[in-house]
Amino acid sequence: MADTTKQDNWRHCNKCFGLWWNGAPTNGVCPAGGAHHAGGSWNFYVPANPAEHL
User: Fold this and answer.
1) What angle do CA 36, 4, 46 make, to 5 degrees?
2) Which pairs from 46-49 meet CB under 8 Å and 24+ separation?
3) 30: number of Cβ within 10 Å
4) Mind listing the pLDDT tens digit for each residue in 2-48?
């Protein structure tokens, strides 16, 4: 079993109330319209296990 790691830079969108990864060149498309907006959002760490996807 592989070790679980953490991926940071996940943000909370103030418009759609979802999390999105803020490490891309753009903020992505928000289901509530336009781009996601992270005003005041914390930096969330999400568990990840990349070895499971090999």
Assistant:
1) 15
2) 46/6, 46/7, 46/10, 46/19, 47/4, 47/5, 47/6, 48/4, 48/5, 48/6, 48/7, 49/2, 49/3, 49/4, 49/5
3) 16
4) 567 888 999 999 999 999 999 889 888 999 999 999 888 999 999 88
Structure tokens at 29: 């498309």
35: helix, strand or coil: strand
- 19 in Cβ contact with 12 (< 8 Å): yes
Angle at 27 between CA 26 and CA 30, to 5 degrees: 135
State pTM to two decimals: 0.73
Please state, as a whole number, how many other Cβ atoms lie within 10 Å of the Cβ of residue 13.
21
